[in-house]
Amino acid sequence: MSFVDTLRQWDEAVTYAERQDFQEALRIFLSIQEPNSKICFDIGCLHLLNQELDAAEKAFDCSIRKDEHLAVAFFQRGITFYRKKRYEESLGDFQQAFKALRGNQLIDYKALGLRCKLYACDVLHNMALAEAQLGKWEKAQENLVKALNYKTEAKLNIIDRALQSTLKQKLFKPVEFPSKELFKPNKHYVAELEKKDYLGKAKVVASVVPQDEFSGFAPLQPQVEDGPTRPKEPEVLRALEGEPHTVLFEFVPETSDELAVVPGNIVFVLQKGADNWASVIFNERRGLVPYNYLERLEISLASKQNEVRNKLLSFQKTTDNSYIVKVRFTFTFTVRVPPGSPYAILIEKISKKLNLPSTAITLSLTSEANERSVIDANTDMERVWSHVKDRHITLWCKTKEQTDGEPQTEIHLVALHSYESSNPEDLSFHEGDTITLLSRVNQDWLEGKCKGNTGIFPASFVEEVPVNGQ
Questions:
Q1: 394 three-class SS
Q2: In this predicted structure, what is the pLDDT of residue 28?
Q3: How confident is the model at residue 84 (pLDDT cuts 50, 70, 90)?
């Protein structure tokens, strides 16, 4: 059966139901060969109206099988089980209906063709009733108290009466969905079922041929050259103004206003209505999607900062050719100098950074300041700058206080846990490795050297050991 035939029969069946001719409506529904979840729901409602509980159960089974997120189908099957006195299964379906609401106060099915709303407080009310039928009165009271958080003014009296009944351990009536309300096919699709004559019957107005009955078209009219072009709607720019959400479930549109999405898609929510429908943008297209099919996507601020940082570094690389000198002192810092700078410029930059006179500073190419590695006014700076790689060079710095008297004792650390670097400047090591402390970056991070590699690492991953303990 084609989609057009299904649509035509669906519309015809709903029309009979509106006239209260439920038997004829059910007959037409049952003749549809491949009913969708909404049609199966309609069939179940009509069976439920006729007290045909077994047939209603099968129809709602079919509806749920075709759309496992249709909360109202779980609700109606829960009512069917309740009437069949299968209270455990009834409770299970009401719980599934509440889960499908995903914390929302209600779902308005108007946009899907059903002029009804499913309220969370009604679902909790019926859950409490099923619990009461099973003798779980305390659990029933808990569900009713929970229902107060989702109540509306119109529903308050119903919940209050149910609470009073549970306190006396008396049963109360279930809240039922109006079975006469059915899903209707999209009115725009139904309108297209009628044949339309867009051209009309051609008529001869004048002809040089007597009794001419030619009914062809007039010649094509000349087109306007360089006519105005339709501006492209800036939907992508508008999407950036929305909130990013991840799609949890597949949604198949039933109307031209809705948008097809599948799990994993990222959509931007422009507006969320009170009826639980969200106006979203996906792939430059705008449409409606049920908000309970979406989950808000939290974008990490750190990732944004890293992106900006990388862009800035990239910009600096293209606009600044300075050498970046990384200086290892009791702490680590950097200075920038022009390529091929003399010793005077380099030492001036470092002395300003340390706020010390240049005569109190000793620079070297290695951590051990010996005759070959020391850098001073007599050093060939071309040899120093030959160690530059990608405009970066590392130097070691000691002050007069550090070089006088007894040499400082190195501080050694042992790794309590393994640490894998997540950034290029981090230091990787394994549990039990020995690390030489170079500097304390702050109270949480240290800088050290391990197996010939240098970098920073969390202070909580290591502990200090005596030098003679190695």
A1: strand
A2: 92
A3: very high
